[in-house]
Amino acid sequence: MKLSVRKTVAIAVITVALGGVLVSCSNNDFKLSGQIDGADSKTLVLERGFNGQWIALDSAKTKSNGDFTISFEAPTAPEVYRLRMDDKYVYFPIDSLENLTLNAPVEKFDTDYELSGSDNAVALMNFEKQLSMLDFDDVAAVNEFKRKVYNEIIRDGKASILCYHVLNKTIDGKYLFDPTDAFDIKIYAAVATAYKHYRPNDPRTSLLEMIAVEGRKKVNSESGRQNVIEAEEISSIDIDLKDVNGESRKLSDMLKQGKPTAVVFSLLTDEKSPAHNIEIAKIYEANKGRINIYHVCLDFDQLAWKNAAVNLPWTVVYDPAGERSDYVIKYNVQTLPAVYIYNAKGELVDQAVSFSDLSSKLSRL
Question: What is the distance, to the nearest Å, from the Cα of residue 192 to the centroid of all Cα atoms in its chain?
Answer without folding.
Answer: 12
